[in-house]
Design goal:
Radius of gyration: 26 Å
Largest sheet: none
Helix content: over 70%
Structural class: mainly alpha
Length: about 100
Amino acid sequence: MTMDDVFTFIGNAFGDFIRFIVDGLTGFFGGLDEAAGSFMQGLSNSLGIPITLISLLVLALGLWLLWKGVAALLRSAFIAMLIWWLLGVTVLSWLIN
């Protein structure tokens, strides 16, 4: 076995290892992409909203306002809780059909 054969073997092994890693990560992220797409499709179907950046931002804002209401409830600030929940429900009612 010559020195060229040894380095050819090492190069092939290293290339196969890199291909294995890349194929595995491609499959993982491809599956992750499909799962996220299915989640967003199910969410938009159940809420009756389009999958757009604006609608997702409005949804996040409405959920954040509801969360602020929960935080106010935990602080026993009932008036603030009612205000946050009213704002959250108002924003979400604009969005949801």
